[in-house]
Amino acid sequence: MASRVIPVEPFDLVIFGGTGDLAQRKILPSLFRRFIEGQMPPEARIIGAARSALDDRGYREMVAEAVRAHVSPHRCTEKNLAAFLKTIFYVPVDARGETGWEALKARMRPGVVQAFYFSVGPGLFGDLAQRLKSHAIAGETARIVVEKPFGHDLASARALNATLAAHFREQYIYRIDHYLGKETVQNLMALRFGNMLFEPLWNAQYVDHVQITVAETVGVGGRGSYYDHAGAMRDMVQNHLMQLLCLTAMEPPSKFDPDAVRDEKLKVIRALKHVELPEIVRGQYLAGPDTPSYREDVDNPDSTTESYIALKLEIANWRWNGTPFYLRTGKRLKARLSEIVIQFKEPPHSIFDSPPGQGANELSIRLQPDEGMDLKVTIKEPGPGGMRLIDVPLDMTFAEALGEEVADAPDAYERLIMDVIRGNQTLFMRGDEVEAAWAWTDPIIAEWEARDQRPLGYEPGSTGPEEAAILMHRDGRRWRELKT
Ligand code: BG6
To answer: At CA 428, angle to CA 233 and CA 6, rounded to 5?
Structure first.
């Protein structure tokens, strides 16, 4: 496959929090990869801004370290790195004070795309937005990029939206949900709306249920203080799983355009029914032979925060009436696996003497690892011996089918940052979408807090609490095996 890298326009990208973890792990390595691919023009500039008293040289050293640590050595040659570092600058800025802002202004060039990445806690969004305007640094069309968590609940999300809206128009605000930058997530839209095959079957009449799984093997690691205030519902379901759900369930947008797509996603969120507690399983990982428990990880012996959640939800609209969507996500599980599974119904009448379940097609769309899809179909078992049926997968692992280029596909951040520069908001969350997701999440959390519902312990390396399997068994269904 020929690579089609179309360079973006020259830009000045200011990274507030430019010395922070996200900048070093994701943003800068992603920019480096786009640079060596030729997508980031050499006249583009990346300006780190943070409190540390660094100069350009000191920051370049830090960036070089970050890139070496997070980009594979065959790409991170010293020649590539030296060329990339020429695009890097640094300005010490005090987000809460007036220091550094005029120096930052002096660094910005007229006539190029301006983008400001708020890679800082949401508590600083207001300060940054206000100073960018009061010092006349950000022009009318400057793009503002903000990270999750976008609020902790509906009230805080509304407040953040209002803070940003006081200074910038919605069409220039880019709320990142990095799941939307994953290759297969976009492929889900291509699959649904670029083919005739699936869409006629994509509804309650033919789909028995949908499963969305985002399983991780890692624990909460060094992010305990944030995570213990969030939990799996706020950290994963309200945003990443919600986005996967929306793309799976939405109506076809009239075109692939930011508002057309986001209007349809919003309708899905607004149609979600409230989930009652018996339909929710919350878990917390226990200690393993070599791994600390969740409570040890977050240094809170009484924590009642969930590191695992499974729930059953329904969408109250014509397309999905009566079709359950089962969602699960958790940390320290048996495998790292993210997938969406569309379980179709069995044929209405079997002419074969086959056991139940046979003939029910299953389409699974794998986000990670090994992006791809497989479709389970029923065929006759080869050979003599009568009409015995077996289920076989029609497997398509994209890297195998499409070659090296897919295996080496850009990371979610690479794609998303380039979309910011291109001015394409399709893969970013709109303010009303985020608020609608919180409006659905808040009452569920309030209910388990009011009833003091505690998470169930589960063994590290397991599939989560046994009750999650029971949630499905009650409905005569079961989760797909958690294996990679
Ligand atoms: C982040 C969450 O948004 O997504 C983390 O805060 C989680 O808790 C991560 O580990 C998962 O992302 P990925 O891309 O590794 O699946």
So the answer is: 140
